[in-house]
Specification:
2 copies of one chain form a homodimer. By secondary structure, chain A is α/β, with parallel strands linked by helices. Helix content of chain A is about 40%, strand content about 20%. Chain A contains 10 helices and 10 strands.
Chain lengths: ~250, ~250
């Protein structure tokens, strides 16, 4: 039909197996808050972010490489770790030159799934680095899977909205034969870019959860575009900053 | 918090396991075209519709009970069966008093999954019987799972739109702590009730597939509200008409 690469959206890790990850770039999306924090830490000069899938592995690796251990379970700092999953914990004066060892409930797990399933390239995306993600995907001319981390295999609103934002911006460069992608794009358009208002009005589950922890500031930051517009690329166990072509 | 029953939307059979089906009414949704056709056949006087999960079982049972065998695989009449999955194949003069043995790609499979997972009651829903479904769910005051059949475990637009229509109408009677439900309702609202136009504009995968088979008439019928507003209830292997309380 045409020579455009394809773009699909996986709304939940439980749906990732439906998509062909070989020869594809997989974008790991965990807006509240893992991938927002990853972009922020790298933007602020972290040497790398190492995503690990368990708290014990996080502690072990943190000791081994003298890294900052961080992570949450069910939205709170996990026991035994030094830091949580808030982007505000990683300003330049703290994180510059350091390595962050991060374990999160949903995002890290999805990243490891994508790795096992043979993704050609893995990057992370969030509103904080929306432009960098879009620029990269439109330049690469490869098939794309937007992988929403969701919450314990349920899809969630904020990750879907981010997928929608990407599709609204660069969908025209892809062949999008995927109802999930159209759903996401429609949702993003319906939000009228007032993402915080949209999440509140719709009583989004994670909005509710984090507001109960007093984290409105985090939510607002994580829903703001391009506060930390770098491109984290996964290479040999680490998320590293990719220098952007200018 | 409150005493309202809960309502969740499962966007794909691959997500059904995330929801507690015990003590719940599960609505099987396969708008194009299984559940539209089930409502139509019963509305037109079919004695019952027996959903089966394989073509061979369909043929075997059809012979045994002298029923009409029908079904599709990948959108076409399956080999060895007498009829397809179009609602227009089942006018009153043909189907009245007869039993329809039906096998479909996605809807029948989801129904059997719901059965195995212990759903308290299983009904089928489509735009053709939207009001009957809404009336029943709002009267029963039980937890509800809107189960979208999708397409080979991918979510699809029309089933999600139907879930959204139900939520738009009767969501206020339920506690809806479920992002999928909010997304479905938003999408339905965004369609502005021009469902055919919305499916076309968004190049919905199944719209495209059926249009290629020359089935615009089927799509338009299946997206029209209350053409056959009866309530099919699953009982001991059969979908039967439930008499509505007036």
């Amino acid at each position: 039909m045409n020579n455009k690469p394809t773009l699909h959206t996986s709304l939940s890790p439980a749906l990732l197996h439906l998509y062909d990850l070989n020869n594809s770039i997989v974008v790991i999306i965990d807006v509240l808050r893992a991938t927002s924090t990853i972009a922020t830490a790298l933007f602020n000069g972290a040497r790398s972010v190492i995503p690990v899938d368990s708290v014990s592995r996080c502690i072990e690796l943190g000791k081994q490489i003298d890294g900052i251990t961080a992570g949450e379970r069910d939205g709170k700092v996990a026991e035994g770790l030094e830091h949580g999953n808030s982007p505000f914990e990683y300003p330049r004066e703290f994180i510059e030159g350091k390595t962050l060892v991060l374990t999160t409930t949903n995002g890290t797990r999805l990243l490891h799934m994508a790795l096992e399933k043979g993704a050609d390239e893995i990057i992370t995306g969030a509103f904080t680095n929306l432009s960098a993600v879009c620029e990269h995907l439109s330049q690469m001319k490869k098939n794309v899977i937007l992988g929403c981390a969701g919450w314990k295999d349920r899809m969630n609103m904020e990750d879907t909205l981010f997928a929608g934002a990407v599709i609204s911006k660069i969908g025209k460069y892809f062949s999008v034969n995927c109802d999930s992608s159209h759903l996401a794009a429609n949702m993003y358009e319906k939000s009228g870019k007032d993402l915080f208002g949209f999440m509140k009005k719709n009583n989004a589950s994670h909005y509710h959860r984090l507001m109960n922890f007093g984290l409105e500031k985090d939510i607002r930051y994580c829903l703001t575009e391009d506060e930390a517009s770098v491109l984290p690329v996964y290479k040999e166990g680490k998320l590293l900053l990719k220098q952007r072509n200018r």
